Amino acid sequence: MSFQGLLNILKKLRSNPEKELRLLLLGLDNAGKTTLLKQLASEDVNHVTPTAGFNIKSVLSNGFKLNVWDIGGQRKIRPYWRNYFENTDILIYVVDCSDHQRLEETSLELAELLQDDKLRTVPLLVYANKQDLPSALPASEVAQHLGLHLIRDRTWQIQACVATDGTGVKEGMEWVCKNIPVKK
Amino acid sequence: MIILKIWSVLQWYLRPFIKWFLRKTTRLCELQRICYGEQAGAPRTCSVEKSLMLSRTQCVKEIVTYLDNVVNERRFVSEYFTDILDPSISIIMRAKKINPKLHESFSVSFRKCLESIWSYKSLIIAIEELRCCQFDSNNSEHEKKLLRLWDLLVPDDKLEARVTKKWQHIGFQGDDPKTDFRGMGILGLENLLFFATEYPQASSHVLSHSLHPKYGYTFAIVGINLTSMAYYLLQDGSAKTYMFNARNHLPSINLFHRFYCYLFFEFDKMWIESKPENIMEFSIIFKRFENAIRTELADPATVFRINIEIDTI
Question: pTM for this one?
Answer without folding.
Answer: 0.90
